[in-house]
Every structure is written in structure tokens, then in C-alpha cells.
Design a protein that fits this description.
Chain lengths: 110, 113
């Protein structure tokens, strides 16, 4: 079945630095979403990007479907960006069920 | 748009008691999903409905868990005879159409003593 690996597991940055988060998956995905979760908080959808490049605000996601990988770039990080970033893929083509990676814990220091 | 609404936000039950969790999807969304999150297992899919019909319950523990969607405005997840290992955050999500983004509610934190 579909497996999702995220790296790095944790990342510490100084405010203003850029972050690059990676998501690799084992089978072709037709649905890919990046989420943000603050400590004890709910999941916030950041981007839905099953292929190509998408931008929103300081976030850029690039997904290369054939290589089964996606990245999330956060530019000019802020302390409020601290939290866990999760990548989720559909379990199989045509399935609506999302399989989640274990996340990247981002800490942005002032 | 209020987003996905889940009630209660926190629930504490004694071992063996029943717990019912409620979800109100975003108006106009045709699919409703249930997941649960624990420190050890991370996020796990439980079940989902499309146009109120159950489609996939492959993630549901078979014996004590059940889910229903009696109308388009709410879904319930019922856990009978709760056990300590059922303690988790139960998350509900909804989406508009095939392969659209899933939007999550704030979750219900269930603690079974």
C-alpha cells in the first residue's frame, strides 16, 4: 500500500531563513495535500498539489509525480510558522482516503 | 463559512462506557471523513461517506466502532464499550467533490480512563 515519508523529521531555523520540506511516496498519487498543525491544534490545509507547482503567500509546493516526491518551500520564515507540517497522499488511485506522513516539526527561533 | 464543526471538543469516559462524537461538515460538501490521531500511530483513516452513503470503512475497528450520516448536515461516530486504547483525537473532514481538498475540523479529544 501507499507509504509516505517526510524529511527532515525536525528543522530549526532562525526567523527570516527559508525552509525546505520533503515528502516522498511509494505509489502514484492523484491527490496530495500539505497541512499545518500547531501544537494541540487542528489540521489546516495549506495546499492541494498533486502535480506541478503551486504558490500561496510565502509557500511554494512542487510535486514531481513521476518521481513520487513533493516539496514545500517556506520563504522568510516567521516564529508563527512553528509547528508540524504534514504531507498526505491518497491511498491508491481513485481512493479518497488520505495516508499521512509522520510530519516535519518546524521551530523558528526569533 | 464556519468550517467543519465537531462536538464535543473534549470527552472523558470511563472504561466500558459509550462515546458519541458529532461532526457537521461544511455546507455543500458531499464527502465526510473520519480520522483519528495518536502520538504513537499518527493520523489514521477510519471511514468516509459520500452523499451520505458509506463508501469505505476499512479503517474502522470492526467490533465497537460505528459511523452514520443520517443527513447531509451531520455525521456521528459511536464507540461502544470504550477502552483506554481508544483515547485519541478524532478528526472529521469534508470535501466538495472528487479529489478536492479535505478540510478538517478541530477534533474531539477522547480520553478513556
Amino acid at each position: 500500500g501507499q507509504q509516505v515519508q517526510q524529511s527532515p523529521a525536525s528543522l530549526v531555523l532562525q526567523e527570516g531563513e527559508n525552509a525546505e520540506l520533503q515528502c516522498n511516496f511509494s505509489s502514484t498519487a492523484t491527490q496530495l495535500q500539505w497541512f499545518y498543525q500547531s501544537p494541540g491544534g487542528s489540521l489546516v490545509s495549506l495546499l492541494s498539489n498533486p502535480s506541478g507547482t503551486k504558490h500561496t503567500g510565502r509557500l511554494t509546493s512542487t510535486t514531481v509525480t513521476k518521481e513520487r516526491r513533493s516539496s514545500l518551500h517556506i520563504s522568510s520564515s516567521q516564529t508563527t510558522d512553528s509547528g508540524t507540517y504534514l504531507c498526505a497522499i491518497d491511498r491508491s488511485s481513485g481512493s479518497w482516503q488520505l495516508i499521512f506522513g509522520s510530519g516535519t516539526q518546524l521551530t523558528v527561533m526569533p | 463559512n464556519a468550517g467543519v464543526i465537531q462536538t464535543p471538543r473534549h470527552k472523558v469516559t470511563g472504561k466500558g462506557q459509550e462515546a458519541t462524537l458529532w461532526c457537521e461538515p461544511i455546507s455543500g460538501h458531499s464527502a465526510v471523513f473520519w480520522y483519528r490521531q495518536t502520538i504513537v500511530q499518527g493520523l489514521e483513516f477510519l471511514t468516509y461517506f459520500r452523499n451520505q452513503a458509506p463508501i469505505d470503512d476499512s479503517g474502522m475497528p470492526k467490533e465497537r466502532f460505528s459511523a452514520q450520516m443520517p443527513n447531509q448536515s451531520h455525521s456521528t461516530l459511536k464507540i461502544q464499550s470504550t477502552q483506554p486504547q481508544d483515547s485519541a483525537v478524532y478528526l472529521c473532514a469534508s470535501s466538495r467533490q472528487n479529489y478536492a481538498e479535505q478540510f478538517f475540523g478541530p477534533g474531539t479529544r477522547l480520553t478513556v480512563l
